[in-house]
Amino acid sequence: MSNATKHKKYISQFPMMGTIISLTLFEKNDSAVFDVYDYLQQMDQVFSANRPDSVLAKINQNAGKQSVKVSKKCFGLITDAVAYSKEYSDSFNVLIGPLVKTWKIGFGGHQIPSQDEIDHDLKLIHLDEVRLNQKQRTVYLTKKGMQLDLGAIAKGYFADQIIHRLANHGVTSGIINLGGNVQVLGQNPLAANSLWGIGIRDPRYEDGRSLAVVHTTAKTFVTSGIRERYFKIGNHIYHHILNPQTGYPEKSDVVQVTIITDNSELAEVLSTVCFFRGSQRGKQLVDQLPNVEAIFVNQNNELITTNGLEKQREGVYGYESYRKAN
Ligand code: ADP
Ligand code: MG
């Protein structure tokens, strides 16, 4: 029996965080599966923007009133999110919460808010109005109505943590899929060359079919798209990635972008940033970053990829496209 046929897959799935979480292992390891499940459930309790009892909700409820003490890990993630927001202030903003709540895209919203509402919210997303006290581990939003929203970064942080947890449970190969965020651990025991083949979703279809497959060592694949949460008025699509400068869903040539790298939290941030930059400037940004690749699908349904995907570098061994631009 060859090595490839010796292995089975053990797939566990559970609905959580508004998606279906899926964990694939190649050896039976129930304690690892339960650990991941418990961890995600705990994280949902800490970070959900929609649960009134989450730590995040507590910080938001205390905006303009007082600071809130949080755990080390929670403080770490919020600190990262604020730092990325300052670095990419044209696009990524962790204070986007008020606008997300006003638009309600993906949560039953179906109309354009008034300009007054948007102007009001735009005053609540200034990054110098978050106070982080590292010594006390406290977070203070200084104006009433301010709201942290970790929706564009938290899953990346969870994926990074899960990889460590799996390794601690003796797992050497596995895939965790948090919905739009796929993180791979170790080598593929089912492939002779040990590489993984990770499918990039075709945004035109809802059945999850792929438009390309990337051959890679263990990496994280984070995809942001505008075809899942949106509403339409006439021919205009209002989707859930909001421009922190205008308060409106951003117009860009990108329909979907996938970031491929080692750190999932960074990948989450870059997927949002690249969406705003558009495929050309997004590609330029990623081409300058070491060990990061990206695949864009634009409005004309064309694939745009970073240089490393053409040249084979740093663990990513090119891709096969299932279709040409059409
Ligand atoms: P997906 O839901 O496809 O993973 P993202 O990772 O881009 O998409 O995250 C989108 C979520 O992030 C939104 O639902 C909202 O909660 C939040 N968000 C929207 N716009 C921004 C922004 N400009 N900066 C940071 N977070 C954002
Ligand atoms: Mg994301």
UniProtKB/TrEMBL annotation:
Keyword field: FAD, Flavoprotein, Lipoprotein, Magnesium, Metal-binding, Transferase
Presence of keyword Metal-binding: yes
SUPFAM superfamilies reported in the protein's UniProt record: ApbE-like
Enzyme Commission designation: 2.7.1.180
Reactions accelerated catalytically: L-threonyl-[protein] + FAD = FMN-L-threonyl-[protein] + AMP + H(+)
Cofactor note (record): Magnesium. Can also use manganese.
Coiled-coil intervals, chain numbering: none
Enzyme kind, highest EC tier: transferase
Pfam families cross-referenced by the UniProt entry: ApbE (PF02424)
List of residues binding Mg(2+): A152, T272
GO molecular function, one term: transferase activity
Cofactor(s) needed by this chain: Mg(2+); Mn(2+)
Similarity comment: Belongs to the ApbE family.
Protein name (database record): FAD:protein FMN transferase
The species this protein was found in: Lentilactobacillus diolivorans DSM 14421
